[in-house]
Amino acid sequence: MAEITAPEDRRRLVTLLSPAYLWLTLAVFLPLSAMLFFSFLTDLPQDAPDWGFTLENYLSFGESEVYATLLWKSLKLGVTVTFFCILIGYPCALVLARTIKGRARETLFLLVILPFWSNSLVRIFSWAIVLRGNGVLERGLEAVLPWDIRLNLMFTTHAVVIGLVHSYLPYVILTSYLALQAIDDDIVDAARSMGASTLTILRRLLLPLSLPGLLAGAVLVFVPVVGSFMEPRILGGRHGTYYGTVIEDQFVAVYNWPLGAALSFVLLAVVLLILGLSTPILRRART
Amino acid sequence: MKTLLLTSAVALAASGAVADEIRVLNWQGYGTDLDWAVDAFAEATGHTVVHEYFNSEQEMLTKLRTNPGAYDVVMINAAFTPQAISEELISPIDTATLENFAGIPASFAEDPKLNADGQTYGVPWTWGLTSFAINTEAWDDTPTSILALWDEAHAGRVSIRDDAVEAMQLGALATGQDINDIRDLDAAAAKIAELLPNLRTFWSSENDWNQFMAAGELDAATYWSGSASRSAALGLPVQFVIPEEGAVGWLDGLSIPATSEHKDAALQFIDHMIDPDFYVKWDAEGAPASANAEAADALPDDAFNKAVLGDPEVAARVHFQAPIDDETREKYLEVWQGLKASQ
User: Fold this and answer.
1) In this structure, what are the phi and psi dihedrals at residue A13, rounded to the nearest 5 degrees?
2) pLDDT below 50 — which residues of chain A?
3) What spatial distance separates the first Cα and last Cα of chain B, rounded to whole Å?
4) Taking a C-beta distance cutoff of 8 angstroms, is the pair B102, B250 a contact?
5) Whether A120 contacts A201, CB under 8 Å
6) Model confidence pLDDT, tens digit, residues B125-141
7) In chain B, at which residue ranges do the beta strands (DSSP E only) sit?
8) Alpha-carbon distance values, B262 to B21, B34, B121, B252 (Å)
9) Can you name the CATH fold of B128-249+321-341?
10) At what angle do helices A103-113 and A157-181 cross, to 10 degrees?
11) What does the alpha-carbon distance between residue A175 and residue A86 come to, in Å, rounded to a whole number?
């Protein structure tokens, strides 16, 4: 930035960047500040004329064990889902970027992002049809296997994980694919000519070089999963109470926006804290 | 050309004055949105009806608060009407203009929940029970006790609604307490904690409930009497049970939001909804009990809403739900969330 000194350059920079910043202000900063404001209120101004400021909403997080238990449960869910997304997504991206060439790659790539074209609610309800007792999955397996199948997957934590992994898998594939594709073929060839095995190439070259993409994908999965509420509610049954569903209850069911906003900001703080703490560790791992 | 335009403009203005579009806020599939009823209303008055739906009473109140002027008729459970009155969300109704109001007995019409300062804010429309219904194929004998939900033989095949108040009242009934004054909330909560491992899932809407039953996922689930008769009318093997411990009674009323801009049309619609002719047709498709005694009398003698709910012995087991203050509601929610979180 220091190089840009000419006034016309600066003017051009402002003109080019202002739509983006205006959009950020309108779509992100203002709603978020409104929620932050709500989280310190006793009542919403439009409902109660005697509203005031309070810290009560944040304190209630500590007062009741429920919220902390559920936040922990949601964080574990986030880690599990991220783990499975990486486990499935990274090899997919690897094959897509390094092995398959030409037309087939484009087709497969399209298939990977195809789920994104449908509404997430539709995808989750499709999973409900597949997983439920006597559903598509059980019937399919029964048709193939001779014995009686009772999977009982619906309304369990497994069902929630399956639904979420499917929903967020494309993020990991996309970001890993982009990072893997950018690696110069010559580097791999050089390593191979010096006698490195495929495993060594993967471990010492591809993985470290694509780590930024993989991590970006992991963050893109982890953050929304921790706050997810729709998937657990539909697929989780009585096990489907998570931190996200409690926040949703505060907004939709009991109309306690201040508490809901405060709980959201606690979540935001915890997620930022986790990301902040993990950055130096990951940076050290890369060098 | 000019005269043609002018006359069409005049015609438009005239029809606009007569025919309004009223917006009704209700549960989906709950009487007001029946196609034939809306068509009959349009034919009789010229007013068209548009519906919007809510999934919980709190959502309904939220919608009234945040969308002033958007609704002309709202269906409110009488236990929530006092809150709507105190927040000035609904306006008083001149019941003298309702032709069919005379058929509503004083016990409903003068219900203190629907009236304030000598003015009526809600027209009693329907009433019914919150209890449970069984899949008749899964039970040899119809259970007589609410403890059937706790029956281990049906573990994993039971459901209740994800609702703090309903859950606590269920616990109160199962522990023999007054649903409107739960003295020992811990005992009720402990009883519900015992029930939770038995649950398949929570249900949230009537449609939800029907799908679970149709898929054979459930043997028994808490339910509303009107919904049960509707599900049975759909051909599901469902029987509504009013156990010896009793059942929670509720009363639903129709109100007019304070910000409504079509109050006359709204009044006409409410009058249409408490008309015995409408109710008899609705009951054939599955309806809750009507608050209009004349409508209930007009039913065939074997109708559930006349034969069972009209039975004085059953009526004695009904505990009508009183309004719940915010503090109690929040307490229930806290207990309920704690129970769910420990799953």
Assistant:
1) -60, -45
2) 1
3) 74
4) no
5) no
6) 999 999 999 999 999 99
7) 21-26, 48-53, 73-77, 90-91, 115-116, 119-120, 123-135, 158-161, 199-203, 220-224, 238-241, 247-257, 289-290, 318-320
8) 8, 21, 16, 22
9) D-Maltodextrin-Binding Protein; domain 2 (3.40.190)
10) 140
11) 11
Residue A175 lies in a domain: yes
Q: Which residues of B touch A154 (CB under 8 A)?
A: 201, 217
Number of CB atoms found within 10 A of residue A209's CB: 17
Q: Within this chain, do residues A221 and A251 fall inside the same structural domain, yes or no?
A: no
A188 CB contacts (<8 Å, ≥6 apart)? A98, A201, A205, A206
Distances, alpha carbon A120 to alpha carbons A229, A249, B326, in Å:
12, 20, 35
Tokens of B169: 């009242």
B159 contacts: CB under 8 Å, gap ≥ 6: B199, B200, B201, B202, B203, B209, B212, B218, B220, B221, B222
Do B338 and A64 form a contact (C-beta atoms < 8 A)?
yes
Tell whether A241 lies on the interface with B, counting CB pairs under 8 A. Answer: yes
Considering only the beta carbons, identify the residue of B65, B201, B338 that sits closest to A238. Answer: B201
Residues 78-107 of B with CB under 8 A from A: 87
Tokens 């025919």, located at residue: B19
Beta-carbon count within 10 A of B14 CB:
10
Q: What are the distances in angstroms from CA A7 to CA A4, A12, A14, A263, B272?
A: 8, 9, 11, 46, 72
- The two structure tokens encoding residue B241: 């049970």
Same fold flag, B20-127+250-308 and B128-249+321-341: yes
Q: Are A142 and A196 in a shared domain?
A: yes
Matching residue, tokens 């069919």: B100
**Shared-domain flag, residues A129 and A262:** no
Q: What is the pLDDT of residues A110-150, one digit of tens each?
A: 888 887 888 888 999 889 888 877 778 888 888 888 777 67
**Strand B199-203 versus strand B289-290 pairing type:** unpaired
Architecture of domain B20-127+250-308: 3-Layer(aba) Sandwich (3.40)
pLDDT digits (tens, 9 = 90+) for A63-81: 888 899 999 999 999 999 9
- Reported ipTM: the value is 0.71
Which residue range is the domain that position A252 belongs to? 242-287
Average pLDDT over residues B163-190: 94
B17 touching chain A per CB within 8 A: no
Q: If you ran DSSP here, which 8-state letter would residue B323 be given?
A: P
The SS3 call for residue B118 is coil
Q: Which of B59, B196, B337 sits opposite A246 (nearest CB)?
A: B337
